[in-house]
Amino acid sequence: MSNERIYITGWFVFIISAVFFILSSLENDDPFAFWGGVSFLFACIIFLIPLLLRRK
Question: Where are the membrane-spanning stretches (predicted)?
Answer without folding.
Answer: 7-26, 32-53
